[in-house]
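WARN no homologs supplied; continuing
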Amino acid sequence: MRNGLIERPTTLERARELLLASACVAVCLAGPTATFAAERFPPPDFSPGYQMKETRVPAPASPLGEYADLAVLVAALSASSYLALRARSRRGLLLLTIFSVAYFGFWRKGCVCPIGAIQNVALALFQPGYAIPVTIAAFFILPLAFTLFFGRTFCGAVCPLGAVQDLVLVRAVNVPRWLEHGLRLGAYAYLGLAVLFAATASAFVICEYDPFVAFFRLSGSSGMLLLGAGFIALGMVIGRPYCRFLCPYGVLLGMASRLSRWRVTITPDSCVRCRLCEDECPFGAIEVPRASKRAAPKLNMVAGLFALVPVLAGLGGLLGAQASGALAQMNATVRLSERIFLEDSKRVEGTTESSAAYRGTGKAPLELHAEALSVRSRFRLGSSVLGAFLGLVVGIKLLQAVLPRRGDDYEVHRSACLACGRCFFYCPQEHERLKKAGVALSPSDVSRQL
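OK structure emitted
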């Protein structure tokens, strides 16, 4: 969509719209089948000995409250998409950002959130005994669905984790492109580990190590409070460090935004290449024209990198398999099995609370060891897939670093743009649009072009 005109959707876009409609219908049909219990979001049945921490129990007060949260999410996503793409209002996005911090952050205590819902979805996919609540599934799906149509407008002004970082940003320091690509690998690794631990019913690491949940609840361990304070302090000089370099849901949103039907544009009309916006994005999401890029790489270099991609994936898979033993220690059944074995072989003295509780059940240790062996087998497979995935990501990023960009104008990077609207006022075409619309510009707005 540009200048109020909507292009005719392609076959791929129609398929995407059909997929979204099907997902919405599925959520609606599943709603009546949901069972309301005393605890609306019961914790998944992890292995024996796994303790759910206090930071994981922020359920809404009632079923009505759950669907009220869902309605607010839909309204906020709609408002953010309209303000970023149609109204092109940075001020409107800023007000919505403040609302999101107040409602989804401090009022709802940071939950339910799409980021943590990754683990519920993974657990439901790989553990048949766990049924994901409908509202959690909807919180996971809706931001992705909006991203397929409008880009990362959820990140722009709705996500409370991103919003609180956006509000504290004073003056962003530009992160070198090579360093930014390297740091973003942390988000891919975090996503893979979170899925692995949730799929094996070992832990919900995203919820356990959420750097902002203790801040929103004004309580928590000193370590988590310090971690949240550290991210907020870092966010004053580096634009949204958690969102860019660690957020696992941001990886999924970035993938979806590459297929978005519409997206934020720096200019409301044609780009005049004035270069005023070139270095003004605090997230490094502005792509400069092709003429400003370095010379095109040699064909043999590109061919070599293409050949290197499967090698890196295979090497990553091998390294992942080697790391499976250490990663399996996150599972309580594996740890308990090892403890029982050490006690039975007289290699340690006494019992722990978990081993004593298991012996009190009267179950044979061989049954526990067999279950632990099965868990280790799943970890070996999952760790291999995770390693191959990370190797593939590294290979693709190396290719992206050398391949020339095809655009001739200043444009936002589909995956990296967080739809904050900061770049609007740096475009002279935007100022012309506002003048034609009768919007008075403040001296500070005009000074941005000087």
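Strands lie at 286-287, 411-412.
OK
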